Amino acid sequence: MMLRKTAAAAAVAVLALTATACGGKEGSAGDKPSGVQPGATNAPALPQYIVATDVKLDSPTFKKAKERGKLVIGAKADQPYLGFEDQSTKERSGFDIEIAKMVAADLGFTVGQIEWKTVDSATRETAISSGQVDYYVGTYTINDKRKAQVGFAGPYYQAGADLLVRKDETAITGPDTLKGKKVCSIKGSTPLQEIKKPQYGAETSELGKYSDCVQQLLTKQVDAVTTDDSVLKGYAAQNPGKLKVVGKPFTKEPYGVGLNKDDKVLREAINKSLEGRVKDGTYKKAYEATLGLSGSAYAEPPAVVRY
Amino acid sequence: MNVLLDHFSDFRDGFLGTVSITAVSSVIALVLGLVVAGFRVSPVPPLRWFGTAWVTLLRNTPLTLLFLVTTFVVPEILFPGMSAFVLGSLALGFYTSSFICEAVRSGINTVPLGQAEAARSLGMSFTQTLRMIVLPQATRTVLPPLSSILIALTKNSAIAGAFSVTELFGWQKVMSEEGYSIVPVFFWVAVAYLIVTFTISGVFRVLERRLEVAR
Amino acid sequence: MSSSSVLFDAPGPRAVVRNRVFAVLGALAIVALITVSVVRLSDKGHLAPEMWDIFNYSGIRENIADGLVATLKVFGLAAVGSLALGVLLAVARLSDHRPVRLLATGFIELFRSIPLLITIYAVWVGLLIDHSMWALAIGLSLYNGCVQAEVLRAGVNAVPKGQREAAYALGMSKTQVMTTVLLPQAVRAMLPTIISQLVVTLKDTSLGYIILYPELLNSVRLISATTLVNGQYPYVSTIVVAGTIYVAMCLALSALATWIEKRGRRAKSGIGIAPAAEPAAAAAVLGGEAASGAVLAHEDTPGTAADGTGRGPAKD
After folding, report:
1. Which of A246, B56, B201, C5 has a 20 to 30 A CA-CA distance from A76?
2. What are the boundaries of the signal sequence (chain A) (predicted)?
3. What is the pTM of this model?
4. Residue C150 touches chain B, beta carbons under 8 Å
């Protein structure tokens, strides 16, 4: 019965695909908001941002953005509740997206004036330094190597490598309990290098996307996923009944907003915006409506570093 | 800062990884390829259809997609917890088996008609004819394409690096992400692959010479 | 020859029974294998109707269509690039000047021996990190160009010697002989193999997924990574859809190759048309010295893999 329905749906899908690429149902494919989706009624509401008017900055990036009337922001697209783009509605959501929006509002740009651009980790530096994006918000750890190429405002969030496990997992309570367990992460990522050290005795699995690892965790191919806790919280929030974050970060990854290295004025403006948003509570609200849904409590962000 | 000296143990692991996944998936591909070739020339229609479907499907699917299948679909059908190496070898072995099957089949077709006819007139069965008369003679014509197929397999094993198998592409990726210049990294990886591929073509050249018969 | 095979006799009564038994057993085994797979997948919810319903959404379809366009775009670039490079390298390898010949040979051998992925990744990281499309197109052109060069060289060598001699006797220059006499005939003779190699190129565009080029496989992967269906990610359904599209595209191209080969066999130019059977032939082309001979060797073999008109029961 179920199989027949499946076959019918598949046939319809394939036929429709071959017939025409457009048309078809509108809206978001997949599971419908069930109360824990950002923006849903009984979930903590997303903050509204009041857009500043008459912002004047002596910043080349800002002036260019004003001229074109649009702010180009780089972000990630495949991290639920963090930097996410719904592939059927093209709507962006998540904590990093909210940070980008609140900064944009303080710079005098409405949400409608934002042009989003998906930029992957490998090409972040070149996208920023070549001016393809005005600024970038996407799990971007501030470090000295990157500071040589781009500028950083913030940090706006203190992330740290952590472990994501299945909800019924009791044996894994931190990196020291990984002996003989299978741990998945992205090839070459820092937490993976750490976990690979012989003292932990973990088996590692290296795939191309975090969702690959999460899928393997759900299908019991691996026992844990490691990367920044922010990313893991996002997946835990997406799969609330199935996954949880262990909550013992073993590295420190301060996230910053990446921007042009020489644009000190814009950097200061973003720093000020972040400080203000933390103070007036919109930052906390944004957290609670996104990553907070994973059950991980809110923590004050680290102080902004002006270097 | 010499990338090879600094990370020689990783490089060695990658090299051995490439060699071992090539070896394991070659065996899978050879066995499967022979069996499916047998299917394709057999007197039993369903087996022939299966062989045709197998070859058509596998030959027209990108290998990357096959890796996705073995990584995410196969463990769901069999059982969870299969190692990436096994799954990667399966993907490579299955993919390559379709090419080997076709090489073997055209090899079978090059054996003169009279041979099989003579075998049959001696009362040999299909399996006997194939095993004792046709395949040994087909080996000679199959060897050159087989050598190329195995070299292609070696090169294709690089894709396994993107699916959690320790091999040379993984080393290249990690090294370039650690900030080493791509040129020396590329150079050493290329040298390593050349060693493997030259070894394979060398072995096959020896084999070909051994099996050379004046006809 | 009729449909009877050389490998087995027309079956007698006992053999008919035996073959039937085998047929039933074989069919049962195959059906069982498929059933078990489907049941196992469906048990775990991978085949639920909702998993397939995502493809009914216009946003998802647009994504797939965009990916398909990106794939075809890079395939077009790589096809043009590899053919241009192939002609260039083939001519260089047939040159009368030793240094040119050596250079071309070295180039071909080098890029043919290195995995395509390694080349693509190096071009991407080293030169074109911001332009993954060009990195992919260049990587594909480099590798496939070398393969096409060998195919073309084999084609040129297959043109009867008299043609070249006649052209020289007419007072044509070396370039004229190559461009107006040899190459056109080589291309014609090798067209099926060339197209078969284009199928390989088409399949290899999926490597773009590793350098983040948003081609078909990548966009499908993005869909499976970002759409949660029944609390799972739709890996199985997206892989099936992507696979179907790839197989369909490749089969269409292969069919073109076979059609050209059949048409070419009617012409009587004295130059055999290479078989479109890529596995043995094209793989042999990939394989160095043994190759150039092997490609053409196929012409002498009465029934090669693809044409299906030869002996052997390979007619399904």
Report:
1. A246
2. 1-21
3. 0.82
4. no
